[in-house]
Design a protein that fits this description.
alpha+beta, disordered C terminus, 31% strand
């Protein structure tokens, strides 16, 4: 089951997973770094954490921690216990994180992958994340994924911009409350982006 973090039950195991699975790939942290370890509970409180566990009271076998930064979702950490890899828990947690981001009106999700984490880079690429840069000082890649579809063609209807979606509907862009069928608006004309708004 996927559930929200319960600090009393989850934090100790989450810290252990960070020490054994994430920190060994990091060039900036060490497993016995007491200051960094002591900061983790505060870091967890800053955002949202979802865990995978067998029950509400059992230890987590995987977790994702995320934070909303303006219109962007930062995927801070994703960890799966080695014995539970290949069971799609990571994909399920990422879907939950992205759903949360969309519910908070985030336009994109951003994450960082250590350059020695080839498995992680392949995993995120399969989920639709694109590598947008490399941070040499941290020796990690930056990846971004849009959380909302990008309009391919815009139309004007009574002064309001609408985006054409592949399913044949005009999605609000950016502020109409609901989708309307393009077939109802056969008089829509392509919007010239050079026109005044």
């Amino acid at each position: 089951m996927i559930r929200a973090r319960n600090s009393r039950i989850d934090d100790k195991e989450m810290v252990r997973l960070i020490q054994t699975e994430l920190i060994p790939m990091s060039h900036t942290a060490r497993p016995l770094d007491a200051h960094m370890i002591s900061e983790l509970p505060r870091r967890f409180r800053r955002g949202v954490t979802y865990v995978v566990s067998e029950s509400r009271q059992s230890k987590p076998v995987a977790f994702v921690h995320l934070e909303k930064w303006g219109s962007e979702l930062l995927i801070d950490m994703l960890v799966t216990h080695p014995q539970y890899r290949g069971m799609h828990y990571g994909s399920a947690l990422m879907a939950k994180a992205e759903s949360y981001g969309r519910s908070q009106q985030c336009l994109s999700a951003r994450l960082y992958v250590d350059d020695i984490n080839d498995r992680g880079l392949r995993f995120y690429t399969k989920l639709g994340y694109l590598t947008t840069g490399y941070i040499a000082g941290l020796r990690c890649y930056e990846l971004i994924k849009p959380l909302v579809p990008r309009p391919q063609q815009l139309f004007r209807y009574e002064g309001t911009a609408l985006s054409r979606r592949s399913d044949g509907f005009a999605a609000p862009f950016p502020h109409l409350p609901s989708a309307v069928s393009l077939m109802e608006f056969d008089f829509l004309r392509p919007w010239d982006s050079n026109e005044d708004s």
